[in-house]
Here is the input.
Amino acid sequence: MSSLDRHGRPLRSLRVSVTDRCNLRCSYCLPEGSQVWLPKAGIASLEELATLVRAMTLLGTTKVRITGGEPLLRRDLTTLVRALAEIPTIEDLAMTTNAVFLPEIADRLRAAGLSRMTISIDTLQASRYAANTQRDSHGKLLAGIRAAEEAGFTPLKLNTVVMRGTNDDELAAILRFARDHGHQARFIEYMDVGGALNWDADLVVTRSEILQLLEKEFGPIESLATRGSAPANLFSLSDGTVFGVIASVSAPFCGGCDRARITADGKLFTCLYAADGLDLLSPLRAGATVAELATLIDGRWRERNDQGAQDRLEVADRGPSAQATELLAKPHLGMHTKGG
Ligand code: SAM
Here is the structure.
């Protein structure tokens, strides 16, 4: 069975947020004091999450990314990885992490069948990292990158959210760091998603500015062809170094979006900007079979009309997409809950 939404977009890729909790307080995602955690009783077990993923695969999902919150905070995560790695129709099983806890678990994740890893690194400077995350763990991030390399997760993707006046003077250094370690840097435009309470259009460094900054340092940059639904546009330096830019703000790619999200409490979201999700955990706990869950998901996907990032372009005097009070009342608005 293959499901198409109202714009003809298939359901190919899934982000599973295994926890809304995070050990960092990044200013652009989960600023201190902005969060209400999901109630523990409503959190899906890893077995339940695996069942929901199985239902998604019946509809054509072949790419699964485990995320959060910080996924490594979830105990026994390797059991989920193992269960997902056994699903034959999943072609790509990846994880996004801040890497702080990777030294303890990278080997086991690899052995359990995780194929790819993306690590967030917004700065190479420990003091900046501490200022932006409210935690002093930059050394652990670097140790986490080494652990991922040693476990065989190479090349890594290294995600950098670019913010004007915060880290836009480090793009060349980050690209060099990625290149020297054999990894792929991916520069992400600062998005006005829930949690980004201090978002301002002036703080967004657009794709064209990012390319200009890098061109000054490295010379001509070539644009490479990319797959329609991939979030990153790929570029190459003259020495062959490839990097990505995710232009969700200046050039949204909703038209090719084949991505759904499942939250740690088993809700299905069909857009990063969506306010409401479809509860899948209640029917699962009431005894729904995998096929019945797939039918529910199929129904929601077929009525999907979302193009959140595109719609945001129309907003006059664009500011944060949620205010602090809304975020406290509706934790699913936060990117740390929906899964980045
Ligand atoms: N904790 C993990 C991590 O740090 O990679 C996974 C979850 S995090 C929400 C996933 C990704 O979302 C990270 O790469 C993060 O930088 C990105 N992200 C969060 N808020 C963002 C924002 N306002 N704009 C752009 N990217 C954002």
